[in-house]
Amino acid sequence: MSEHDTTARRPLDWFKRHNPLQWAKRHKKLTIFLVIVLLIIAFVVNTLGRTAAASAALTYQFVRTTTLQKTSLTDSVSVNGTVASGSTASVTASDSVKTYKVTAVNVAVGDTVKEGDVIATLDTSDVEKQIENAQESYNDSVEEAQTNYQNSVEDQATNLAQLQEKLDKAQEDYDTLGLNDYYSSMQNTAGATGTNRELVEYYYGLFAEKIAGLQNTVANLQVQLAQAQKDNNQDRVNEIQTQLTDYQNQLSIAKGQCSIPELGLQGFDTITQYYNQIEQYRDALETAQQNYDNAVTTNSRSVDSAETKLEQATRTSDTLTDLQSTLEDCTLTATMDGTITELNATVGSVCSGTVATIQDVSDLTVEVTIPASSVGKLSTGMQCNITSDATGDTVVSGTLTRIDPVANSEGTFGATVTVNGADSGLLIGISAQVEIIINEKDDVFTVPRDAVGTHEDGSTYVLRQTGGEGVDMTFEEVTVTTGDSNDYYIEISGDDLQEGDVIRSSSDLTQGIETTDNTLDPMEEMMQGGEVAVAAPDAPVDGGGNRGSGPEGGGPGGM
Description:
Layout: H1 3-17, H2 20-26, H3 28-57, E1 59-60, E2 64-67, E3 71-85, E4 88-92, E5 102-105, E6 112-113, E7 118-122, H4 125-176, E8 186-187, E9 193-194, H5 196-230, H6 234-257, H7 268-314, H8 318-329, E10 331-333, E11 338-343, E12 354-359, E13 364-370, H9 372-375, E14 383-387, E15 396-403, E16 413-419, E17 431-448, E18 453-454, E19 460-467, E20 474-485, E21 489-493, E22 502-504, E23 513-515, H10 522-525, E24 527-528, E25 531-533, E26 556-558
Antiparallel strand pairs: 1-23, 2-22, 2-26, 3-13, 3-17, 4-12, 5-7, 6-11, 7-10, 8-9, 11-12, 13-16, 14-15, 14-17, 15-16, 17-21, 18-19, 19-20, 20-21, 20-25, 24-25
Helix pairs in contact: 4-7, 4-8, 5-6, 5-7
């Protein structure tokens, strides 16, 4: 073999002796380490190159910031409305006087009135004439009814007096049995007392049973005597005759004893005659009593009817009452204390509608409409801040006192805000802006809502300035805890936060970029050493403001 061939074989022999694959197999751990190092070097070189490209491609036009300081966070709803009076009354003419002309107007717009003050007077000549005629008719009716009632009472008295006289006579006849001698109370030798009728009833009852027994015995003996005579039994005839004579004597004696000498009544037969008349006298008395009672009922009804008609006649007739009301309605008076804000009455005109409007200018409200999206947050009793052109920078205090339960045709809800205090400076009819306070927290740090960023793990942060000026500022992430918020601001807190910290108003690093390379992601490419570097050539700074009702002081400013 030549020297040339020998030389050519040496690299091949070297490769066989030094094969990288065989070397890697013999040195596995070292090989893995070298591969990792090479990959890291490649990543760093690539990242530095892309960062340089990004820095060259990004141009920031502005960077907005806000300076932290303790303030108040207010969550509210702002609405517009119109100032109105909380107490309004209209003075109107009733239908009965709408054709009557005005004869006097006692007030002008702007006058202060008290309830009952006369606003205007209408012509009353026609209604006064009608009242005069109606009064005459009323008086005639009352006079006629009064006469009828008086006659009815007198007729009743006369009729009842006559019937009472007959009743008294019937009672007297019943008690005396028609005898001239009448004793309301007397006592005879037997100790009986009472009226004539009572004495006759007493004596008749005292002897009637005994005499009836004797009469019955006499009658039986007479029958027996006749039978004995028929039988020709003389002994029996003599025996019965003796008994009959004895009982006849007893009967005669008993009848003689039944007498009332004081009344001139001698013998049982006379007393029986008067006793039998008692029933007739009793019937006559009952008839007289019934006649009297019937007359009382009948005459009472007649008197009651006349009395009712008199009462009805003395009541003021509906016509007269209506006319008197019409006369009163001709004087139009204030229905409340307040100020005349509208007047529609002139002398010689007729009042066909509202004559005057009275409003309490010290009791004001603002009538507002609330969007449907906000009404659920609100409730009556919430504090309100009211502003208007009339009050300038002065904020007037108010209270939400009414929210309509049903939306109107436009889908919003009517509501009333009552102005607190009498001297607010607000004027009826002007427009006003109302901020309804939902809640308010004092002495807290607040930033625009966009200033707070959120990591994938849910933690929140803000970007705090660490250096630089204007669009060249640099920032660092500061972990914060968020609290209450409104539509524009959010409460933040954290141990690293201090008053005076300058916070980027948006955690979105693309905000304020004028031109970018679409292939780059600033959020990924601009984080360097834990800071956000905002580098750009000189550019105008756009000072921005916070949206909505921001914190007092410490508002955002352009840097």
